[in-house]
Amino acid sequence: MTQIDTSKVSRWDQHGREHVVRVHRTGVQRTIRCHTCGWRRSAQFLPWLKAEEHLAEAHQATVDPTAA
């Protein structure tokens, strides 16, 4: 059975640029890393929420491309 150990959170800023934060999983520990600025943080709980917060605060990227 294949196990997914990486996912991403992407948001767009007001200038139409995409910003991506990847969530890497190793056991119960998760590491989040921004591909725009290199910011990195470990997060055991709610890594996707922390990724969204980083994108909103650091890059003003709040437009969710998956939202209808």
What is the compact description of this entry?
With 68 residues, the protein is of the alpha+beta class.
- Cross-sheet strand order for the largest sheet: 1-2-3-4
Sheet/helix structural class: alpha+beta
Total number of helices? 1
SSE string, helices as H and strands as E: EEEEH
> What percentage of residues falls in helices of 4 or more residues?
10-25%
Strand content: 35-45%
Main sheet properties: 4 strands, antiparallel
Distance between the termini: 32 Å
List the helices and strands and how they pair.
Layout: E1 6-12, E2 18-26, E3 29-34, E4 40-42, H1 47-59
Antiparallel strand pairs: 1-2, 2-3, 3-4
Explain this structure.
The chain is α+β, with helices and mostly antiparallel strands. The protein has 1 helix and 4 strands. It has a 4-stranded antiparallel sheet with strand order 1-2-3-4, covered by helices on one side. It starts with 5 loop residues before the first strand and ends in a 9-residue tail after the last helix. The model has no long low-confidence stretch (mean pLDDT 89).
